[in-house]
Amino acid sequence: MSLSASLPTAAPVRPSAPTATELLDFVRRIAADSELVASLPLDPGGRTWLRLEGPGGSEAWLIAWPPGTGTGWHDHGGSRGAFATASGTLKEDSLAARLPTEGWKTLELADGIDRSRRMAPGDSRSFGAHHVHQVLNESADEHAVSVHTYYPPLPLMRRYSRSGPLLRLEQIELPGEWE
Length: 179
Fold this sequence. Notes:
Jelly Rolls, single chain, 4-stranded antiparallel β-sheet, mainly beta, 179 residues, 12 strands
């Protein structure tokens, strides 16, 4: 028996998952890259985007938002992430509650869990794996551009409708269905 045959083989080295700080630093750096932000085509009829390589194997997007567009209520399928506004102003509405991910179609939300923030150029935030929100460009005449990153890369997105305190699961999208 040879010596090399008796030695155990090393497991492949995998990069560690990016931290919330690394995700936030990434979106801030990309949002400040005026040349990259300016290279994104602006379409008055719909959002445009560019997929980027995020830190540590994360999924990242540079997204242009025409006036009056938004995402609708959604989550990120258990991924955590960060986003930053590069130009224009975005509004984020979110829920300050951890929702169950399975076993329901309609939930009645308690009073006091709604959060709203305006995100001007340079503003950024990170979020956890159970974040439910919508992002809106409420401007009547100005595009907005933002940078988003998710880890692990999005396994799915749940889409919700909202009527007052009622949140209803409407659709589950898989990768490729939102690209």
